[in-house]
Design a protein that fits this description.
The chain has about 325 residues and is mainly alpha-helical. The chain is built from 15 helices and four strands. The strands form two sheets. It has a two-stranded antiparallel ribbon with strand order 1-2. A two-stranded antiparallel sheet has the order 3-4. The chain starts with 10 loop residues before the first helix and ends with a helix. Bound molecules: zinc ion.
């Protein structure tokens, strides 16, 4: 990734997710139906479909055998640990590993949580819906500085105020894995191209390692060599490989830059002409220094890699 998302707080969102996770835990430890939710949460969801979906799951759970229960519990414990799944140290448990009835009920519940529950009063009033959550994401992470998608570096990321905001990608597929549809550490704003044309239904847990989008202190570098772009990071080479496999980053940057190269050279020549005493090399250095300050903003990092390659020849 060209830049990583900063971790930020959202107490209200976490509170809702904790209530839901606690309800699952209470079912695991065999509590009675009336003890599954906290009083307040029970009142808040009583009239929503979530209440019924939980009840159906509760009833079904009572009739499932120990072996199946252990599998569900294992999914509950593993699937939410997105960072370790990215690192490849944990393999998540998929719906297909659970028995058909359980998997059907859980799927209904988690589908509902993301696509409907986020539009209901409780989530809307407290979090501002997914729109409000994206607005916060935009403000509190460096999307608002870089304004580009961190996965490709090419497409713009609209601000939360735009009528069309980028979608949240379920980094670990919600269609394949239970417990991850409404999990903050699994919801990544991503440009439409990355989301719909490249990542699609690729499963991050099939790769040896992938970047965890909330990582810190990782700097991937773009270089231009032999007429093609390459991402370089010797410490995270496995993550870089899967990143490029999932999003086709290097090819997309090659295509993207094709029509821009001439403009970049022209602007160096113009600098040279305006500052008559500058050599091409000096003008080149000046331009590189100028864009270095806003490396990931606009296509500066793509331009810089190209200009650095030119430097070798002058
Ligand atoms: Zn993108």
């Amino acid at each position: 990734m060209w830049y990583f998302y900063d971790d930020f707080q959202n107490v209200e969102f976490d509170k809702i997710v904790n209530e839901i996770n606690n309800a699952f835990r209470n079912i695991f430890i065999g509590k009675e139906w009336k003890e599954i939710f906290t009083k307040q949460f029970e009142q808040e969801i009583r009239k929503t479909k979530l209440h019924k979906l939980f009840y159906d799951y509760y009833e079904l759970y009572k009739t499932t055998d120990g072996n199946e229960r252990r599998k569900i519990y294992s999914a509950y414990c593993k699937n939410m640990r997105i960072e370790e799944i990215c690192l490849g140290t944990i393999k998540p448990i998929s719906y297909s590993q659970l028995n058909e009835n359980v998997s059907k009920k859980l799927r209904e519940l988690f589908d509902y949580l993301y696509s409907d529950f986020t539009k209901r009063k409780l989530f809307k009033n407290n979090v501002g819906g997914l729109k409000g959550y994206y607005e916060q994401f935009y403000i509190e992470t460096s999307i608002n500085i870089n304004k580009r998608c961190p996965f490709c570096g090419i497409q713009a990321m609209a601000s939360g105020k735009n009528s069309h905001r980028p979608d949240f990608d379920h980094y670990l597929l919600e269609s394949k894995y239970p417990f991850v549809s409404l999990l903050r550490k699994n919801l990544m704003p991503m440009c439409d191209d990355c989301n719909k044309k490249y990542k699609k239904v690729k499963d991050i847990s099939n790769y040896k390692k992938v970047f965890y989008p909330f990582s810190r202190n990782i700097n991937n570098k773009l270089v231009y060599k032999n007429n093609t772009y390459k991402i370089v990071n010797n410490t995270y080479s496995e993550e870089v490989t899967s990143w490029d496999e999932i999003f086709d980053v290097e090819n997309r940057i090659d295509l993207y830059s094709e029509n821009l190269k001439l403009g970049w050279i022209t602007s160096i020549n113009e600098t040279k002409i305006f500052g008559a005493q500058l050599s091409f090399d000096e003008a080149l250095k000046m331009e590189i220094a100028r864009i270095e300050n806003n490396y990931y903003s606009s296509d500066n990092f793509i331009e810089k890699a190209y200009l650095e390659d030119l430097q070798i020849y002058v």
